[in-house]
User: Fold these one by one.
Assistant:
Number 1:
Amino acid sequence: MTFADCLLASLVAVICGLDRMALCQFMISRPIVAGPLVGFFLGQPLLGLQVGMLTELLWLGRLPVGASIPPDDTQIAVGGTFLAAYAMSMWSYPEPVNIAVGLLVAIPLAKSGQLFDHMARRANDNLGRRVERFLQAGELGAVERGHLIGLGHFVVSALCTFVVVAGIGSLLCFALAPIVAPYLEPAGYWLLLVFPLIGAAMILRSIKINHSMTLFGASFVSALLILWLL
Amino acid sequence: MKLPGYILISTLFRSFLLQASWSFERMQNLGVLYALSPALKYLYKGEDRKEAFQRHLTYFNTHPYMSAPVLGATLAQEEKRAAGQDVTFSVEDFKSMIMAPYAAIGDALFWGGVRPLAACIALFFAFKGSLLAPLIFLAFFNLPHLMMRFWGFMRGYFRGVSVIEVIQRRRLPDVAIRFKEATIILLGGLSAYSTFVVFNKQAVAPGWGLLALPIIYILIWLSRKGLSVLFLIFASVMLIITFFQVVT
């Protein structure tokens, strides 16, 4: 993992972090996109794809409504891919172990993303009041300046989250991976099945339509039987 | 006074930055003013311009994609107001009346409907190991997203406040429910497929994968009891590790 890799990953973290809320919202911030994107720059697109697909469903049902700040799954995907790639470059554990280590370290650390996001929004409260004072004084250009400064707050928030996830995460990986990997290794791909199943459960919990459990169950059983029997 | 095309385009593209200075107190107010400012500068001079700017500094919050028809209709209202014509509602009343229902429609349609559906479709490709998955997700999601941005903005501008009826006729909440139903069905297939892939990789008969269904129902029950995703992940991983330590 070179310095250039870290710079590229942080650039992706910032761009995807902005897309989450402040800029465009084309959804490049979704883990299924952000994971492979950072993986591409780190030379491991398939690793990023795996991290992204495992993370995608977990908080997909949490809607960014009003003042609520959902968990930062963008930085989990970006940081998780970074850490998994770091683990691959350091040790020769099987791929599921590296991915599991990356995600298990990134997920709790990315809680900091909610804190930084909250701080950025609070900073924008002050900014709004400042712009209002400028407007009353007849300085209309303050609107555009103030608005773009607000964007800067979100840049700092995304960058800080990535630094926490990737920086502290790398140290944790370095210290913990040799200890936990021998326990994770026998479980292999079973570890990775945990993520989509919990993700599916979370979405089923959040989507409120009639007979959702029946529809899901029927679809699950029929798809599995078809895959098994054909 | 009609707004020239370049100002409409500028407002539309500026609306992509609507949430750049999102704040707890007034949410998207600065974003709205940022998007409208080229038009307001064009329409008003002197004190009127200052008043127009202050008019849009009030609290505003809606779904970012659904802001397009609101901004379009607001421009039409401002045009009439600047020309001294009668307007059906004041610009402030129109915005405050429409933002909450449009937020609810946008949340249900885009966050609750289109996004999970696009994700489920793309995840099939991801589990297959195809790098097309992110592109498929972006294409499925952004087609309706960009349609709403461009179509909504133009409809809002040309239809003015009657854009409310135009959106109402599309029955978007019903469309959102159909998307959610499709998502549930695809999610069932996706969960089965991911289970099948892992069971195959671990050389276990896929029929045992049927056990994943009650596990998912138990996970739903546990999350309804208030257990967080973080807890469920770590608890499940610990259970799996313990199982393999005991077995091997």
Note: The CA atoms of residues 63 and 106 of chain B lie 5 Å apart.
Number 2:
Amino acid sequence: MTEALLSVHDLKVHFPIGKGLLTGAKGAVKAVDGISFDLKPGETLGIVGESGCGKSTLGRAILRLTKPTDGTVVWLGQDFFALDKASLRKARRELQIIFQDPLASLDPRMTVGAIIARPLKTFHPELTRTQIDARVKEAMAQVGLAPEMMRRYPHEFSGGQCQRIGIARAMILRPKLIVCDEPVSALDVSIQAQIINLLRKLQRELGLSLLFISHNLSVVRHISHRVMVLYLGKVMELAERDAFYANPMHPYSKALISAIPLPDPKAERARERVTLQGDLPSPLNPPKGCRFCSRCPMATDLCHSTEPPLSPRSDGRLVACHFV
Amino acid sequence: MPSIRTNADVAARQAAAPILSARDLTVDFKLEHGVMRAVDGVGFDVRRGEVLGIVGESGSGKSQILMAAMGLTAINGRCSGSVTFEGQEILNASPEKLDKIRGSSMSMIFQDPMTSLNPYMRVVDQLTEVLVAHQGKSKAEAVDVAVEMLERVRIPDARRRILLYPHEFSGGMRQRVMIAMALLCKPALLFADEPTTALDVTVQAQILDLLNGLVHELNAAVVIVTHDLGVIARMCDRVIVLYGGRIMEEAAIDDLFENPRHPYSQGLMAATPRLDDNTAHDLRTIPGSPRALAGKMSGCPFAPRCDRRIERCTAETPALQRGAGGRAAACHLVTP
């Protein structure tokens, strides 16, 4: 068993709402509500769920871009949340992020070369201009951008190319972990495939770990080693990729997989589908007991009163359900 | 439930007169630096009871086909060619003429329900407007019909909720309101532009089931525009694959997915990650990016990205060749 690169333990992020002058907080949106997992070096963990499940907040809280309410994150044996400003800065070189909207995450007034060089200039002021240029060109080549394009501006690039710029910027410090927050959702299918292959290649060659946040289970299948399903801030299932897709156990995982239309009309017609009723409940007021009980086809009285613990099954996966 | 469509059904349907026919439809937009051709000589027919899918990536012109047919092309756009609805020309028709058809016999579901519903109007007023205008119903009668339609699209507690404003509904519920609005006058023809793209997958599944049931009940003709091959596979009888404003391939649903013939259709399918794909191989990609919308160009629009390109492809635009079984393809290298 390899030592974990990242260990998240009982992480909580609550956003207080309705804080009046005299009344105090009226409640809190529990965006992330007690999530734990380990990530090994070179591993990709796919984090999936629908809007409001807390997947992006989780990614941001791990990087301390959002203030966590409770819990710990251990990064290479150090308590990441206890780091002082100087140590945090140092640690952050090894933790990078790629955002969903490729163009909005690039400064329109900076050249692409300057955007990619920025982290390097920030963390390695000792480097000369020539050295920085060489590293920028190397990073651009690595992500499939022609190094001659470094003097151009973001608006001159297509969506897929902008995402490559974002990846080059994240890669230039040679990080150990990249949080990918819906990195292909805004891209066309033909471009999405290019970016997925690129991330897979970088991971293979550089032994990166990825937290791959996505609502698209088909994309996640192609990139992840393990899959974690979130619903309203809690883990419903955490399993090895192949075991998960062959046999999703949690009723929510089953429903998610069955909801995705297959690009295959014959398979579509033959398929048995679990269609969930209703919409996601408000995260302000999640159901009591199991969070999924209001939409679960298997729910009983027990589910409405008692929250099922996330517990291991025979193949080692974790499932939070009373009945599977 | 998806309907089971036998070959006999399809044949019988093909014998009927089309409700919507487009011929050589072209949409140009005048921009500061010249003219951009978004749709370039597109032709197709749709019959009652048939669901036609138009699939393409951004900039393929797929939405502009619907906008042109609905008479909603932006002010800097110019449409030419012909679009007929039940034999009448509707392309560039006067607003008076279009208003008699739109909303009553032909309606549209848009992608984003929040921006297509009026935030200042209660749902009840938006829904009843069309009934009062087109069917001369009294307000009270119209409210009853609207409530019944909201119940049909499974909005719980419809009589109370109809009095709410759009922002008081969740995304999935808003899309149901849009569908209810589009189906209120029982249209013969329904356009749906990325009807579920803004929704979560579990809600998308509900909406697709709902749409499937309702359009078969109404025996309407439907044109769905989407980038999602899964939605096409679930919903459609026939598909048009669009690229750079032109039809690359047209085929019955099973034919296209089993045996795509155009290099672009093949590339699109191979590039789509599949949920039921067991292998951990790299996805096949299409090099380059979708065509940046530019002026008129010669040759096949897909040629710059096509790995089977020959010299003729960049010199001469391939015409859409029609073959057996309703298949058609526009490529110098393949026969439909």
Note: DSSP finds eleven helices and twelve strands in chain A.
